[in-house]
Amino acid sequence: MTSPVALDPELESNAEPVKAEQKLEGRSPGQLMWQRFKRDRTGVVCAVVVILYFVIALAAPLLTKISGTDPYTLYGQDPTYADKPILDQFGLPLGYFGGVSGSHWFGVEPQYGRDLFAMLVYGMRTSLFMALGVTVLLMATGVVIGLIGGYFGGRTDYWIGRVTDFFLSFPQQLFFIAFMPVVTAFFVDPREATPTYFRALAMLIVLWLLGWMGMARLVRSTVLSLREREFVEAAKVSGASPWRIVRKEILPNVVTPILVQFTYSLPSTILTIAFLSFAGVGFVEPTPDWGRLFAAAANYTEQDPAFLFFPGLALVIFVLAFNLLGDSVRDAFDPKSGR
Amino acid sequence: MFQFIIRRTVGALVTLILIGAATFFLFVAAPSDYASLACGKDCSPARLEDIRQALGLNLPIHQQFWDFMSGIVMGRDFPTGHCSAPCLGQSFYSGDMVWSTIMDRFPTTLTLTVGGAVVFVIVGIGAGMIAAYRRGTMVDKVATSVSMVLSSFQIYVLGPLVLLIFVYSTGWMDNPAYHPITDDPWKWFTGLLLPVLVMSTIFTAQYTRMARSSMIEQLAEEHVRTARAKGMSNRYVFFRYAWRGSMIPIVTVLGIDISSMLGGAVVTELTFSLQGIGRLAVDGAVHKDLPLTMGVMLFGAFFILIVNILTDIAYAYIDPRVRLS
């Protein structure tokens, strides 16, 4: 993962004097972070794993072209594939481990005979990119609200704080579920079927409305301590406008906590989306989605446990890699936080 | 201390009223047609009008809001019958009163959340403290890496796996089910043992890591060094001095985590086919049964607020500075 901080010219001008004195060349905090991160072998391996997942998700159409399958065809029921039976008379996959074979790499779904490999890579595509969008949106909202609250302080800060507290007092995951039909009902006539893109939009809105608070709090508290620092005062004295101070003096210094928070919230957003689909209020049949696979797997476990194996293993490795990556990023930014 | 509790309770009440208002305006007064949701898929205009009348949707919005809020406190009358004291309305889908449905289902969820919380607090913090006490040894390494791996297992991955091992293939346990504790405490315990353990796994692992790092941080504090310098025994310093300080960040997170336990309860109930209020919320959302969903939400919010007050009290007990602010 290349660090955006290291490439940020603004940051270099704001390099903390203490750190600059220690090293004769005068490295920016971003460069220091990158050096520390490179030395952390676990962190690098995890970063590679995480990037690999995103590459797989991005290349899903290519991968399914190679495997020659797609996530929608019912290979078990479609008459075109009748010459190659993959399900027995009970609807269970023939062969070993959920019907793993040359044409169906991860086996097939019981009952329908859909290809698990195609469903998984396409499902990852849905989940990962949706989560990426939601997380970026959450970060942006949180940063703006936190900056306003932290920088202007006083009454503005007080009310923003109360609103944040109010949103935090919701039982979040319960509200995610409950708000889904409401948000959908805002736009779609309840008597009609909801189109898939609309479900995605509704999820985006719900996750966004109920998820920005953590980031806002973090940014606010960071800004609050930065506001009193000498370099901000110096900028004020030299006549910089509030907008310039926020943009040039404060924002570059908040990048670190934002980036750390980002590596923690992306996996949790992915899991939340999976949770919604698992509960049956997110993506529904036949949209391939990671969470929906688990809902299906829970039904098939007794007869065909292999169906759970691949999506489950993929998820566990992904979350593990992301958690370790988050710790490494945090350690690289802040070596004092000993594990 | 007493004043502190009063202040927090009043604050919680205000929040609850605000949440009630927010849900009401989102659900009932939203631009979509509430009555047509109540009416269902094929709905004649005459029937729609009847329903509108029955739900009082013809009344001005502030009147409707007042009816709704006062209904919660005093009960209200529907054309289909009386709805007594904490009236959260009547389900569109089943026609039952929402409050009684919630009360039927609540014991399952309560057992899951409270049981889960007890497990993860005791096991998680215990393991974390042992790891910190034996820092750098094999015990510490095992605890840290096991918790790292376990915290990456989601309930919907671990749950079916556990079911497969303990129920489907070996038959060591019965399929998880809820039995009232008043009927048979042993059945109650064994019936929900697997779900509770699975649900608390992720939290247990997270708390192990958190307790460990918090403890290690505390052990580096100056008051701990002073205690050691005075010649106190290692164990005394550990459990008397460092312990208290290390609990402060953990209790803060605990309050937030209990609310995510409710989310965990949703997944657990779905994975193990249990009938709790998490299931109810999902059913409500899937059937677009707004009164039911709204009732579960308000109830959930109420539950969370009570838990938050309790954690605040615990917080104030551990850290005297909180009481003064």
UniProtKB/TrEMBL annotation, chain A:
InterPro entries: BP-dependent_transpt_permease, MetI-like, MetI-like_sf, OppC_N. It comes from the Bacteria. It is found in: Cell membrane. Keywords: Cell membrane, Membrane, Transmembrane, Transmembrane helix, Transport. Pfam families: BPD_transp_1, OppC_N. Residues 1-22 are annotated as: Disordered. Residues 124-326 form the ABC transmembrane type-1 domain. GO terms for biological process: transmembrane transport. Its main location: membrane. Gene3D superfamilies: MetI-like. The chain crosses the membrane at residues 42-63, 128-154, 166-188, 200-219, 254-284, 306-326. Belongs to the binding-protein-dependent transport system permease family. This is ABC transporter permease.
TrEMBL record, chain B:
PANTHER family: DIPEPTIDE TRANSPORT SYSTEM PERMEASE PROTEIN DPPB-RELATED. This is ABC transporter permease. One of its GO terms (cellular component) is plasma membrane. Belongs to the binding-protein-dependent transport system permease family. It comes from Streptomyces griseorubiginosus. The gene is gsiC_4. It is found in: Cell membrane. Keywords: Cell membrane, Membrane, Transmembrane, Transmembrane helix, Transport. Its main location: membrane. One of its GO terms (biological process) is transmembrane transport. It is a multi-pass membrane protein. Residues 106-315 form the ABC transmembrane type-1 domain. Pfam families: BPD_transp_1 (PF00528), BPD_transp_1_N (PF19300). Gene3D superfamilies: MetI-like. The chain crosses the membrane at residues 110-133, 145-168, 188-208, 248-272, 292-318. The lineage of its organism: Bacteria, Bacillati, Actinomycetota, Actinomycetes, Kitasatosporales.
